[in-house]
Amino acid sequence: MRENTERTALTRERPDNQQERLNEFIHWLRGFVDGEGCFTIGFVAQPDIPDPKRPGGYRKAYRTGYQVDHSFDVVQGARSRRCLEKIKNFFGIGHIYRNRRHDNHREDLYNYEVSKRADLLNVIIPFFRKYPLFTAKQKDFERFAKIVEMMARGEHKTFNGLVKIARIVQYMNHRKPRVALIRILRDHTPGNRAISPYRLRD
């Protein structure tokens, strides 16, 4: 009888214990991402491709000449891969990739990555808005989230939208100064007047 009573009491306490463990994990996750995570926006120049309608001619693979990539990453050495698996299981999305080392390091690196836009919009961004990071990296996240939402609206497919994204990116992760980054895009994008830094507003 006593055993059944204790089991009943334990069952009643279980939801509270589960919530406590969940809160502890979320607190750990926020700190872990603060130290080991990264919110990344990348620009990939796309070469012209053959135009089947014009023999010997070429056309732009992307209207702006650039592909814009986005990803949330957490990197760890092989001995700490279990931490990445815990994060992946918690979010239920993303993949873990192995990066073989060919230098003096003794272990390979593993990267937990979420790059699918729907997963970023529906899982990662809502989570870190509800549970902000503790350090200045939260600012990087906020800029990252803004860019992903801009891309969801298709703004990265226009010259002006591309440069607006570049102007946000240059403040993330100590990247290049704004004017230098815009100049890189301007010099490699057709219609450079459309993306002049002096004709655009923040």
What does this structure look like?
With 202 residues, the chain is an alpha+beta fold. The chain has a single domain (19-187), classed as Endonuclease I-creI. The protein has 6 helices and 6 strands. The chain has a 4-stranded antiparallel β-sheet. Mean pLDDT is 80; it is low at 1-11 and 192-202.
Topology:
Layout: H1 2-36, E1 37-45, E2 49-50, E3 58-59, E4 66-77, H2 81-91, E5 95-99, E6 109-114, H3 117-130, H4 137-152, H5 159-169, H6 178-187
Antiparallel strand pairs: 1-4, 2-3, 4-6, 5-6
Helix pairs in contact: 3-4, 4-5, 5-6
Concise summary:
With 202 residues, this protein is of the alpha+beta class.
Number of strands: 6
Q: What's the architecture in CATH terms?
A: Roll
Please write the string of helix (H) and strand (E) elements: HEEEEHEEHHHH
Strand percentage: 15-25%
Note the gap between the termini. 71 Å
CATH superfamily label: Homing endonucleases
Q: Kindly provide the radius of gyration, computed on alpha-carbon positions and rounded to a whole number of angstroms.
A: 23 Å
Tell me the count of domains.
1
User: Structural class, from helix and strand content?
Assistant: alpha+beta
| Count of DSSP-assigned helices | 6
**Helix fraction bin:** 40-55%
CATH class: Alpha Beta
Overall shape: elongated
Strand order of the largest sheet: 1-4-6-5
CATH topology call: Endonuclease I-creI
Task: Return residue spans where pLDDT drops below 50 for at least 5 consecutive residues.
Answer: 1-11, 192-202
Summarize model confidence as the mean pLDDT. 80
* Biggest sheet overview: 4 strands, antiparallel
